[in-house]
Amino acid sequence: MLILGIDTSCDDTSASVINGRKILSNIVSSQISFHRKYGGVVPEIASRKHIEWIWNVTEQALNEAKANFKDIELIAVCHGPGLIGSLLVGLCFAKALSYASQKPLVAVNHLEGHILSIFLEEEPEFPFISLIVSGGHTSLYRVDDFGKYKELGRTRDDAAGEAFDKIAKMLGLGYPGGPIIDSLAKKGNPEKFNLPRPYLHKSFDFSFSGLKTAVKLLIKNLGYEEGSLDEDIKKDIAAAFQSAVVDVLIEKIKWATEFENIKTVVITGGVAANSELRERCLKLKEEGLNVYLPSKALCTDNAAMIAVAGYERYLRGEKSDLFVNAKAYLPL
User: Domains in the chain, ordered, with CATH?
Assistant: First the structure.
């Protein structure tokens, strides 16, 4: 069964064709160069670029998959959560395709896409603990089956990826901050500065705003202005900050597996591409946990994960009508 997936939840325009759970194409057109000078995603620019690129990206996906649109049997599209203007572009495009071709449509929750992205490469057994850690989300779920999710905790303020971007801006490193800090941290000493670990004891929630403030105060106390630090200091702060975030994420995973008595963990989302987090997660295997990490290309936003989530919903008899709407806030 050929499924066309479409994702325009934030600033990446993506289209994918999968056959069941096999990826035939997964095109992601990044807007980073347009947003970099602003230090973050500008929603109006993101929406306009989606409008410009959506059809070309879809054509690329079909061509790479060596498929014609008439071969597509299902259209899956992300309808939330995300930037409302961006979501509307992809959703309206998918609804138009569905209406014109009379092909079934399934609207997908972006978070479910992240959770199920692992099934494009591996097949973890249910139940498992899922950590979604990205620029917009940091959440823990118990996953009992396809479509059966129980939220254990979520961020109370900044998501981990958002914190990476904000710290990168303080250090004058540019945007996006995650990959830059990841690279710089490898050259620094994580023990040079003692930053707090916001564990929020007895809670599966996350909070990174205090850690962000701690870095801000550290820069001030060292006598530097934000964005004009010594290069060696930048490396050490990046390493200390990244270590603090990863410590919290790893500890929460351990708490969740112990509390739910589950030995399988799936980590997804853009921050799951972070090298230190991936290394630390793999070490959890030594503690008896079964740990699954998608390839880095499937960690960040992409349409293949939307396609596989739509496919699983369609197999359970679910379809969406043309009245389905985009939602900036959409709990799973």
Answer: 2-116+301-315 (3.30.420.40), 123-293 (3.30.420.40)
